[in-house]
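Assemble and predict.
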Amino acid sequence: MAYIANLDANQQLIIENRDIQTSIALVSSSPGQQQSQSGGIATGHWTKAPQLFKTPSGFILQIDSDRGQYFMQIQASGIQTLATPPLLDNAQQLGLQEIHQTATSQTKMEFEPMKPMKPMEMGNMSMSMNPMSMRMGNMSMEMGKEVKSTSARRFCTQCGQEVEASDRFCGSCGHQLKN
Ligand SMILES: [Zn+2]
């Protein structure tokens, strides 16, 4: 279970319960930089969603767990566990939003090992590598083959042999080619 709360325009509190550990992260962001401080406390398993209060002396986080009730004071200077329950008579309760993934938790991603490329067939579409070719129905495509553009082709004016555009003489008959 994880919850997030906006303390003010550029401060966010992220609270997460994983097993018996509650981790609290205070993330401050100002233009150009982001700072975060976090702490963890073994509270046991939460029995209900944590509650957040705004008091004159800072923010108070209340955690109800199977081990009892915990109070944490959250101030710009840090997060502190309170030994005695604070007075919350005049406190304003703030909303916490449940999230499913926290910024502080590490995302585990598993990929299947890459399999060697094999010719692939899908219905009437097939693809193979080296040279890369693709067939789809009656349409086919090949890549990796040198394709000469017809417009760049030149032919000897004397014998009709194909010559390179840069050739000055025909390789076949020796005829001088005009540029
Ligand atoms: Zn020629």
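DSSP finds no helices and 16 strands in the chain.
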